[in-house]
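Exercise 7.
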Amino acid sequence: MKKMFFAALLFTFAGICATQAQELPDKKATLQTLLNVNKYFMRKNPDPGCPTFVRNKMRPSHLWTRGVYYEGVMALYGIYPQEELFDYTYQWGEAHKWIIRNGSQSRDADDQCCGQTFIDMYRLTGDRRMIRSIDACLNMLINTPQVNDWWWIDAVQMAMPLFAKMGVEKGNDQRYFDKMWDMYEYTRNQHGENGMYNPKDGLWWRDHDFDPPYKEPNGEDCYWSRGNGWVYAALVRVLDEIPANEKHRADYIADFKAMSKALKACQRPDGYWNVSLHDGSNFGGKETSGTSLFVYGMAWGVRKGILDRDEYLPILLKAWNAMVKECVHKNGFLGYVQGTGKEPKDGQPVAYDSVPDFEDYGIGCFLLAGTEVYKLK
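Solution. The predicted structure, written as tokens, is:
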């Protein structure tokens, strides 16, 4: 009887271990997917400083789309410190002399986005040339009274983490954290009629053109997937930097949790999120960039113990596995990426073979998501 009991116990234990082992994708396979997707972009763009001709205009390679891409590259470098990744990023910075787009007096978050990677590279090298431009820009921002620069929610991701990163570099200088909060709070609670955040739904309107009375075709509020993804990612990148006792940390965590709950409620059965979070009939279909940002945030939240693992791990893995299986081409091309814009109808149609106007930011979002999935234990 004892032998039978222990055999049954061993069988049960083995079954539990097997179930737990199957929770997460194989790390080697995840890393290989990330390297394949990134290699596709590097092969297509061998000169990282070269501008690109998009929509009848030459675009410099340190605009926001490329800044987001390099956020993903830095995350990938963090789990796989390959010299090729470092060199590709270094050459990009050198091509622009580590100066943010339109110079250090620019208040445009899209210009400032590249500074996130400049700071990350400074942390790896100690070369202060890499942060002089963004340091001057942020010094200008914290010493001027305006707080209304982030009038569209994409800007929160492009610029908000800069204040967290530089504040830490300055010895946890509270001035940077306070200015970051003031600008975030304005966008959240004041811009437009009552701010861009709707606490009732736990989601954000993209800008004042989309808050009520604007409605989607089904009568719901317009919550654009990638726009909400930008805010979600920004909260992750800020919380990953600021100290535990920063006075608004609890406020950021509360928003992160509220958004997570809202996103959980509107995930599609196939694992993706609609470009219009509350209206699947408005350009419904698979979409990778917003879905990647949600995976990024949820995986980070689970890893840090901020989100319940049992509740959110199945959600993020369903999304991640769907993207790996259905969006990644053999050559690394990433399908189902919505082109640039500000609402569900922009950049359409989105399909497996459709090439967005800019490929870089979609890849960056995917790399951010995958590196966080890779880190899960």
